[in-house]
Each structure stands twice: as C-alpha cells, then as structure tokens.
Design brief:
- Two copies of one chain form a homodimer.
- Chain A is an alpha/beta fold and 338 residues long.
- The first copy, chain A, folds into two domains: 153 residues, Isopropylmalate Dehydrogenase (3-Layer(aba) Sandwich); 159 residues, 3-Layer(aba) Sandwich (Isopropylmalate Dehydrogenase), CATH 3.40.718.
- In chain A, 46% of the residues lie in helices and 17% in strands.
- In chain A, the strands form two sheets. A seven-stranded mixed sheet of chain A has the order 3-2-1-4-12-11-5, sandwiched between helices. In chain A, strands 6-7-10-8-9 form a five-stranded mixed sheet, with helices on both faces.
- In chain A, helix 1 links the parallel strand 1 and strand 2.
- In chain A, helix 6 packs across helix 12.
- Chain A starts with a strand and ends in a 7-residue tail after the last helix.
- The interface between A and B is large, with 62 and 62 residues.
C-alpha cells in the first residue's frame, strides 16, 4: 500500500513534510510513502536522513500551488503542481490509497473534486476534522469549510457521510447533532429549519436534534453537522479561544514569583494538556465525499502533525467509505430527498 | 436617574438579581434601582438586607415569561410580565434610562423591538456583547444572536450601530472586521460577498476587511460584524472552548500530587484569569438599535454579573446612541443603501 504525500504543501514544506513522513514510516511498516514534488529538492532534503529507502518513493512534480492563488484557476493552470499531479496519480494508481497535503485547502478540494470525482449520489463533498472532547473522545465537525453556501440536502448528505466515517472509526450508532443557535427544535436559521425535519426523518440515523456551539466539545454528540461557513466559524473560534486561554494561563502563572514556583510543578501536566487540545497536531481533516481518501493537514503543520496525518491516511486506506456511503444514502432514505 | 431591573429574569432570580442590584447601588450613588416583578415577593426578599431604601423602588408585575415560552406569543399574552411591563414603563417614563434582564433573550428582544421601537432607519436591532481580548481590551461582536437570517443591509447597519457604541465607550475610530471563513477579500458566503463592498464603501468607517473566527479575541478589530446565526456560533464556541480549557487545566493540575502542590501556588492567578475570561460575569450584551438602552445579562447570571450589568446600564444612560446612530447612518452613506 502506498500513501501519496504533498511534499510542497504547507508553511513548513518541504522540510517538515519530509521529516514527518520519515517519522511515519518508522512508526508503521505496512506502507510506502510517495513524496510528490520537485524530485531534485526532495532528494537533496532526504540525503540528510538515514531511513529505509525502499519505503520512500518520489513522484516528480515541478510546480507548486500557493495559498495566495485562486484555487480553481490554479488547479486548471498548474497540472504539474504537486497537488494536481498527486491527486491525479491517486486516481489512476490503484496501489496508492490516500493523499495527504498541508497545502492550499481550496486547491486540494478543487483538485480532489475535479480529478477524483464525487462519490455517486453526493452533490457536495465536505471537510471533516475530529476535535477532542471533554470526555476524552472525539467529535467530528462537518462541513468545517468546504462549502460556504449550502442547501438542506447538503447537510443531510454531510450527516450520512460522517455517520459512515464515524462507524468505520469504531463509533457505533453515532449521535448526530445539527449546529444551531439554540437547543430547541424550532431554533436555527432558514437553512436549519429546512434541514432539521429531513435529518429527523432519516432511517437508521441517530439524530439528537439541535446543538449550541458551546456544547460541541461536550461529548454529547459524535458528529456535529453544519454548513461550511458556520462550521468554519465554530472550528476556528474553538481553535482561537483554546489558544488564547492557554497563552493566558501561561501568562497568569508566570506573572508572579509564587506563580513561577508553582509553574515548575504544573509545567508537565499543562504541556500534556496543550498537546491534547492542539487538534491540528493530531492529524488532518478528511475530505468526505470524494472517491478516494484525501486528508488536509493544517497549513502550519510541523513534522508531528504530518506524521500523524500520514498514519491516519494509512488507517483510512482500510476504510470502505465509498461503497458504504452509497449504501447508506439508500438505506437512510437520503437518496430520495435529492 | 432610574434603572429598571427585571427581578424575575434568569436562572437565579429573584434572589441573585436582588442581591446584585443591592451591590450595584452600593457601588454608585447616582441612580435609583427599580425592581420590576411581583411586589410581595420582592419586598419579602429585600427584607433580608440592609440598604438605602430611598434608592430601591418596586414596580409591580405579577406575571413572568419563562425561557420555554415562544417569545412572540409570550410577549403578546403576558402584558403583566416583568419583561413586557418593565420595557413598556421604560418607554413611557422619562426618568428610567435603561432596562436590564437576565430572562428569556427572545422575549426581551421582541418586547424591546415592539414596545420601545427601533431607532429611525434601523431595520433590525442586534445583540452586541463585549468580549475580552488578548491585549487586555475588548471586542464587540454583533449580531451575536438576535437575527438568525440577515441581509447585507442588516450587517451594514450593525457595523454603523456598533461604531457609535464603541465610540461612546471611548474607542476612537474603531476598527471593524467582517466575520468570514478566510481573511482574503473574496472569502465568505453569499451574504458576505454582498456585504463586503457595502461595508468597504461606508464613509468614515474604519473597515479592515474579513476576519477569521480564530482572530476574534486577538484585539486586531474593535468590532466584529456577523449575521446573528454565525455570530451566535462564534460567541458560544468561544464560551464553550474557554470553559473546556479552564476545566481541563484544573483537571491536569490536580491529576498528580506534584501538580496539586503546584496548584496551591498557581490557584490565585488562575482564579484571576477565570474571572477575566468569564465575560458573562462582566456585564450584559447591549441590544443595539432600539430607542432606549436594553441590556441582556446571561441567563445563568449570579449577583456579580447582575451588579456589573446594572452598573453598565448606568454608564450607558449617558450615551447618546439614538441620535448619533441616526446621524451616522446619514454621514456614512448607509441610509442610502436601504
């Protein structure tokens, strides 16, 4: 099994992507890493490491799409970019089971949608990251940013896709909530009012109703469904607030001598907590709804985040998302709503 | 000057509302508190305290609107409720300068809009809380939940109203950002795409462009404008994440003996931080756009939160929001966009 990794995606590429990939191949022995990008540069960077060279391949792609470029234009104009060439190869090469990139989210999504194609019956693929919950578990938040404008049927499909993803991840009968501005059934905006009864009507879907954003991390739901705009606001608000609070905790502790002394004792548990909360470090967001797994790591990913996303991709290679999503669209009755 | 306070609003009413009101009159001497609600119960509760009785009045209202009731129906059916009667008196009595409630947000908004009326030229009033920023300042987030569905002109009016509010609060030439799913000008959903050029075109408004949710608390903007659905998601995501992290910090510290020892040293700074972050404790959200100041305290408010919201109301009594908003709609050119 091979995993394709965009060596030229993200703020810290190619160095950290290459370092993270090499960490991943040390961790698991059941895959080969294919680094896509400028062969000369990758070779040169690799020469600084000792590793099992039989497990690292290079797939040459001379061009790079930056985050500043308009995704649709860039994907069309740069067929030789690591993102476009990598995803095209993912489609055509059966040995390659997944694609990982920390590069331009827009370009990855556009290339994946255009080159890999959508799963039959899915009109809009969605980004689905996993966030850590208070109870030590995880919650899937989808769509977290692929579709700024959604229709009710899109939300229904996000719920069905995430249910399959959660089940494949080992969560039985996942609890699904709709992100809203209140918990009562009648809360929500016009889109929610349309989506709520459709979600409630799905067969074999454990829909638990509306959820306020303050409860996303509570563990009350395994999946929180949202349009890609609200989902993005929620994801980034949580990210920003968690970071702000951790910075403030550090500042508060080190603001006095007494606090600094205490800080020596609590440094270790707080560091552990910081790692737990730093969900971007834990892996990438799965792009749900395209024909093969595409994982988007955070743009600021360093080697640990890349390692974790590559390992995640290896696990997902065993998931049967495509057929199971198609079947679940049927069995839930979602396919009749289009 | 008198401030009307809903004695029967919020999870901890009337006890904590009365206690908080009495704390507020101790803090400032320039106002009289008018407690609206069942006179007999308020009298009985007040009898447990020593206070300057010349500064506390009771305005009898026998009925109460609960959070479970549908706001529009409740406001129509319960003219003798503390919310409806209190806001009606606010309108009719020149001596009363503001209304404070920790009760049903929906009922307060509906009653304020219907009974007080909107400021001339404003089509939708908006909730505007202040959140603490990393830099020690504050950021106004509006609309944080009054309008689940908005048009671009509503967002423009939120920006103009919040600019006046920020200026009255002492912030010169406030920086205004539009909440979006990216920082680039072309990011956003259909609503944002329509609102962005309108905001950019306003005269005398310091519009700094799109802002991601992760930067709300950064201090880069004084005002963040959003539709009431997204704004609510952002507000509650921040609230939930901050609470989750503080709980996790406590858990991490007390998880080991070593941590517990350190915890004794850092307890005080962390308690201080918790108070800083607990923005619901600092005061209420102003309901921007109605003819007199209405402040909504959090439903879970205890005496300190009530005290702070009442003191906030006293300060706002000196604000000239009504005329200044009318003028600013003209001077910015916002009035031409309707």
């Amino acid at each position: 099994m091979k995993i394709m990794i965009d060596a030229f995606g993200g703020d810290n590429s190619p160095e950290e992507v290459i370092a993270g990939t090499l960490l991943a191949i040390k961790e698991r022995e059941d895959f080969t890493a294919v680094l896509v990008g400028d062969e000369d540069i990758i070779k040169e960077k690799l020469s600084g490491y000792t590793f099992d060279s039989s497990r690292v391949e290079i797939f040459d792609a001379k061009d790079v799409i930056t985050c500043e470029e308009e995704p649709t234009v860039a994907v069309r104009r740069k067929p030789d970019s690591s993102i476009v060439k990598g995803i095209k190869e993912l489609k055509e090469n059966d040995e390659i089971k997944a694609f990982v990139s920390a590069g331009s989210t827009g370009a990855v999504l556009v290339a994946a949608t255009l080159k890999l194609g959508r799963i039959e019956g899915i009109s809009r693929p969605a980004l689905c990251p996993a966030l850590p919950t208070l109870s030590g578990g995880q919650v899937f938040l989808t769509d977290s940013g692929a579709n700024a404008d959604c229709k009710a049927i899109n939300l229904v499909q996000f719920a069905v896709m995430a249910a399959v993803y959660a089940e494949e991840s080992g969560i039985k009968d996942p609890k699904i909530a709709l992100l809203s501005n209140g918990t009562e059934d009648e809360k929500g905006n016009a889109l929610n009012h349309e989506a709520f009864p459709l979600l409630k009507g799905l067969k074999g879907i454990n829909f638990i109703g509306n959820m306020e954003a303050r409860d996303i991390l509570s563990g009350k739901a395994d999946i929180v469904v949202a349009d890609g705009f609200s989902g993005n606001i929620a994801l980034k608000s949580i990210e920003g607030a968690a970071k702000t609070v951790m910075t403030a905790v550090k500042g508060a502790i080190t603001s006095s001598l007494r606090g600094k002394i205490g800080g020596l004792f609590v440094r270790k548990p707080l560091k552990g907590l910081k790692d737990t909360l730093d969900f971007n470090n834990k892996g990438g967001a799965l792009f749900l709804g395209v024909n093969k797994p595409v994982l988007k790591a955070h743009g600021s990913s360093k080697r640990i985040a890349i390692r974790n996303t590559v390992l995640q991709a290896v696990s997902y290679a065993g998931f049967d998302l495509k057929d199971k999503i198609k079947n679940k669209l049927e069995s839930t009755g979602a396919s009749l709503l289009v």
